[in-house]
Each structure stands twice: as C-alpha cells, then as structure tokens.
Specification:
One of its GO terms (molecular function) is DNA binding. It holds the Pfam family TetR. Keywords: DNA-binding. There is one protein chain. The chain has eleven helices and no strands. With about 210 residues, the chain is mainly alpha-helical. The protein folds into two domains: about 45 residues, Arc Repressor Mutant, subunit A (Orthogonal Bundle); about 160 residues, Tetracycline Repressor, domain 2 (Orthogonal Bundle). The chain is elongated. About 20% of the residues are buried.
Length: about 210
C-alpha cells in the first residue's frame, strides 16, 4: 500500500476512535511509524487529509445510492440500501458526528459537500420512484422530495443528535442501528401492505442484531 493511502486510512481510524479534533498530524504519522516530514510530503496539513477522506466518502456514497438498474427482489434492494446506510455511517462516523464543525471551518469542503448531497437527494428520489413502481410505497410525486429530505436529515444528523442528548454517548454500532430503525419508522406510514411486510422484516432483522 502506498504511503499516501496508509496516511488516509490511519487518519480515518484515529478520527473515528478518538474524534477528529483530538488527532494531530503527529498522531497520524506515529500511528503508521513515519516521520511528520514524510506525512507533510503527501499532505500539507490535517485539513487536506480530511478532504481526501471526504472524497472517498463521496464516491462511495453516490455509488451505493445509485438506483439499481437490474431487476432484483424488492427485499434484496431494501436490504442493500439499509446496509449501505449502516456501512457509511459506521465507516465515516467521525464525519457524521461532527459534521457542522468540520464544514464550517472549510468553505471549499462545504461547497463540495452541498454538491454531493444535491446529487444524493436526486438519486434518493429516483430510488423512491422505483419502490413506488414495485408497489412497496404509496408516495405521490409531490411527497417524494419532502420524505427524502426527512430521511436524509435523520441519516446526516443522527450521530450528532445522540451526542447532544448525552455527553457520555459513545458511537457504537447499536447507536447507528437505532438511527436505521428511526428511518424505517418514518417510511412505514407510506408503505403499501407489501411494503409494510418487508419493512417489518428489515426492522426485525436490525433489532435481532442486538437482542
């Protein structure tokens, strides 16, 4: 693995485990046993590393939430998107936990974030249209964007909300699963009988993980 990639992966691990604000470039360099000078050869400062992680996150986010073209069972598709929510929130949890602070100090990153999220929301509306076509959801065209916005709001702010509600909250897989259950709860009232049956199966599967 190239040194640049090692730096990014080490930073992601340390940010997730300790909080991005608590980690310096010296911590990152020591974690992979390189000199600070070697790190600065690849990245001028920590913020450049944060931008590189955001770039990886953005690519993965848009790839995971591109409408699936080939025919698949509806439950398989629902599981795919739900698993994608969990995987991204867990893999990049430092970003979700401190989103406003990270964006406020980097105007360029904030602009990039908005552009990515606009693309994501357009993809999510198209995904919802697919689920309406599969008779899983009963959502009008007018209702789609507000519903997508609500789901997006929960996903992007859930970890920050949990931290705000308790100063001792630790980001665990269970906390993220609670956010997923909250999103399922929002969608349920708009589900058809078939959709409700499949959402309940997903809900039971999430709950069973921590039973």
């Amino acid at each position: 693995m190239k040194t640049r990639d090692k730096i990014v992966l080490a930073a992601l691990e340390l940010f997730n485990d300790n909080g991005e604000r608590n980690i310096t470039t010296n911590h990152i360099a020591a974690h992979i046993d390189i000199s600070p000078g070697n790190l600065y050869y690849h990245f001028r400062n920590k913020q450049e590393i944060v931008r590189e992680i955001f770039s990886l996150y953005s690519c993965e986010l848009l790839e995971r939430f591109t409408p699936i073209q080939e025919q698949q069972e509806s439950l398989v598709m629902l599981k795919h998107y739900l698993a994608s929510i969990f995987n991204l929130m867990w893999k990049y949890r430092f970003f979700y936990a401190n989103l406003p602070e990270i964006l406020q100090r980097d105007e360029g990153l904030h602009d990039d974030y908005i552009k990515v999220q606009e693309k994501l929301q357009a993809n999510l509306v198209n995904i919802m249209r697919v689920f309406v076509g599969l008779d899983l959801l009963n959502v009008s065209e007018r209702e789609m964007k507000p519903l997508v916005t609500t789901l997006h709001l929960i996903a992007s702010s859930w970890l920050g909300y949990q931290s705000a509600m308790s100063p001792k909250t630790q980001i665990t897989e269970q906390v993220i699963h609670q956010g997923m259950l909250q999103m399922i709860a929002i969608v349920k009232p708009k589900a058809t009988p078939l959709g409700l049956e499949q959402l309940q199966l997903l809900e039971e599967g999430v709950k069973a993980i921590h039973a």
